[in-house]
Amino acid sequence: MKKIRRTALASAAITAAVIPVAWAAPPQPPPSYIGWYFGVNGGASFGRSNTMATFLDDPLVSQTILSNGPFGGFEGGYNARLSPNLIVGVVADFDWMSQSGEETCNTDTEGCSNSRLGWVATQRGLIGFTSNGMPGLVWFVTGGAAEGHVETWVMPSVVDGEGCSVSNTQVGWAAGGGVMGQFTESLFWKAKYLHVDLGTARGTVGYISYSNRATEDQIRFSLDYHFW
What predicted TM-score, i.e. pTM, was given to this entire model? Predict the structure, then answer.
């Protein structure tokens, strides 16, 4: 009888040890923002263009043009988890801009100018952090190179002067930060602020010498699909 009882107790102990292993929850897949992804983004942009120009070496224009508007495009990149709370990645994007400033004239010299931004592209690195209190969110900083197509128009006179219109692909930098989180097993979202500085373009057309510095402050939202 004692032998039967001991055997039953041993069987119960083995069963108790095996069942939790057999019924343990399967490992969770990594979040949708880990790996390769591609998606769409858009938002609002608040631009500033500082234009200076001379006509036959005489001051013509020294003005700041403000231009606001929406934008949209696409992005793609890769994120990797280095530790439970540290994520690094790379991202590239391209956006079409829908913004141009209002024509601005200098009443002293009768010179007028305007500026328009056609598109902006960036290639950036990313470093993100998670917190134990909000494990589903990743707070990140980002920065890298930026390019943009800027059109500048300068007119010596509001009445009869011959002006110049130039287009330049300007190169600069971009930096900002934001937050991202998982939406579904394959989709994740990002919200961020990005400052873009496209540097200064200089040139001479006829008798007009000009310089134009373009900067952008952007509020961006994106929805990305994790495909690998």
Answer: 0.79
DSSP secondary structure, 123-187, as one string: EEEEEEE--SSSTTEEEEEEEEEEEEEEEEEEES-SSS---EEEEEEEEEEEEEEEEEEESSSSE
Q: Which architecture characterizes domain 33-226 according to CATH?
A: Beta Barrel (2.40)
Token duo for residue 49: 């263009």
DSSP code for 12: H
pLDDT digits (tens, 9 = 90+) for 135-170: 789 999 999 999 999 888 887 654 445 667 788 899
Task: For residue range 43-76, list pLDDT tens digits in order.
Answer: 999 998 888 888 777 777 777 888 889 999 999 9
Name the residue among 28, 33, 26, 27 with its Cα closest to residue 228. Answer: 33
